[in-house]
Each structure stands twice: as C-alpha cells, then as structure tokens.
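REVIEWER CHECKLIST
Item 1: Sequence provided? yes
Item 2: Single chain? yes
Item 3: Sequence as submitted:
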Amino acid sequence: MQKTIQQFIAASALTFMSATVMAQAPVASQPATPGIDKRQANQEKRIAQGVASGALNEAEAKRMNRQQDRIAKAEAHAKADGVVTAKERRKLHRMQNKTSKHIHHQKHDAQHN
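Item 4: Structure as written out by the authors:
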C-alpha cells in the first residue's frame, strides 16, 4: 500500500512538472491560457500534497485527477479553433471551481488512510 502511494505521488509529481513545462511553452497556433494552466498546476499540487499527508486516500486522489483530466480536455477543446471565447473561459473556471471545492472537501473530511 505504501509503495502504491509513493508511486502515485511520483506519477502526480511527473504530471505536475509536465503541465508546468507545457504551460511555459505554449504552441504558437493555440491561444494562451496562463491563468487556467497555473490553476491546474496548483490543483494538481494540492492533490499530491493531500496524498502525501494522508488527507486523501488513493480512490479520492484518482477521482480528483480524473476531474483534472476532464478540465484539461475541455481546455484543449476550447483551444482547438484557435480562440478561447469568454464563454469557454467561464466554463473552464466553473469546472476548476467545482474541482477545487471537491479537493478541499475531500482533504478535510473525516476519512483518512
């Protein structure tokens, strides 16, 4: 179990670093979304910290990471036409707000490893 958690933390850290590198080097043909990218990286860091501290169990962390993946897909879809509209940005922010609340609630619930 401990080895699984350590592997998960390592994978989360790798994902976080990859997202950070990608956020710093946007593709010229895609619109920049630095605020969204920064928030995604921060939320991934919060998930990894929750796993490391024991505040999030493996199932909770997987659920949070799936939510992060859905946001990343929605962001890629929004960027696909070369313009991220205000409506698309609002949708992405709403998704991030919802995930942020889920992270907070799961990290502060009575359930621990």
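Item 5: Key structural point noted by reviewer: The chain has one domain: 2-107.
Item 6: Recommendation: ____
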